[in-house]
Design a protein that fits this description.
The complex is a heterodimer of chains A (112) and B (109). With 112 residues, chain A is mainly beta. In chain A, 0% of the residues lie in helices and 56% in strands. Chain A has strands at residues 4-7, 10-13, 19-25, 31-37, 43-50, 53-57, 64-70, 73-78, 87-94, 102-103, 107-111. The chains are: A mainly beta (112), B mainly beta (109).
């Protein structure tokens, strides 16, 4: 009965490849997020969706494209992966845009 | 200047000690404040919200000083299980949270 789940947990791939990370929440929340935590441990928001609509789009390369097929899912597709994309990517959700955010377990992406 | 600044530590303390973490934020228009906890290789989890009047949750006390743009977390009677990274978090506007880099706490027996 995991609240926010992500797949895969680990992803190792080569530069130039395209990959996707999936996120699902079974909490009935309206808002979902993608965060990136780099090697220096800074956690930065990338995107936020509210009821399948994009509401936050930080300065992120357009190689990153989020997709929300329904309000329980927010996937992240990354094109032409670069070494600097190596990080832990966390999905999160919240019942509304001002409420506590619940994080998924993270996807550790390594680009070689 | 970083939007949210914390002393990275590590703070190495014995069990039973009292330890305090501080955090400063740069945007005076920030609306809400939180402490999150992150265990090694795990996701962040909300520890507590921080209110202007100060608030307490068991062994944890959080305080906010809006004039100085300063947030603190006090942990009393430290337990081994308190070892983690403590993230100071500020909500700027809407649902955008800004995270500090975290303060590492190691509680030793």
């Amino acid at each position: 009965d995991t609240a926010v789940s992500q797949t895969p947990k680990y992803l190792v791939t080569q530069m130039g490849n395209d990959k996707s990370i999936k996120c699902e929440q079974n909490l009935g929340h309206d808002t979902m997020y993608w965060y990136k935590q780099d090697s220096k441990k800074f956690l930065k928001i990338m995107f936020s969706y509210n009821n399948k609509e994009l509401i936050i789009n930080e300065t992120v390369p357009n190689r990153f494209s989020p997709k929300s097929p329904d309000k329980a899912h927010l996937n992240l597709h990354i094109n032409s992966l670069e070494l600097g994309d190596s990080a832990v990517y966390f999905c999160a959700s919240s019942p509304s845009d001002l409420a506590e955010q619940y994080f998924g377990p993270g996807t550790r992406l390594t680009v070689t | 200047r970083k939007e949210v600044e914390q002393d990275p530590g590590p703070f190495n303390v014995p069990e039973g000690a009292t330890v305090a973490f501080n955090c400063t934020y740069s945007n005076s228009a920030s609306q809400s404040f939180f402490w999150y906890r992150q265990d090694c290789r795990k996701e962040p989890k909300l520890l507590m919200s921080v209110y202007s009047s100060g608030n307490e949750d068991g062994r944890f006390t959080a305080q906010l000083n809006r004039a100085s743009q300063y947030i603190s977390l006090l942990i009393r009677d430290s337990k081994l299980s308190d070892s983690a990274t403590y993230l100071c978090v500020v909500r700027k506007y809407g649902n955008k949270l800004v995270f500090g880099a975290g303060t590492i706490l190691r509680v030793k027996s």
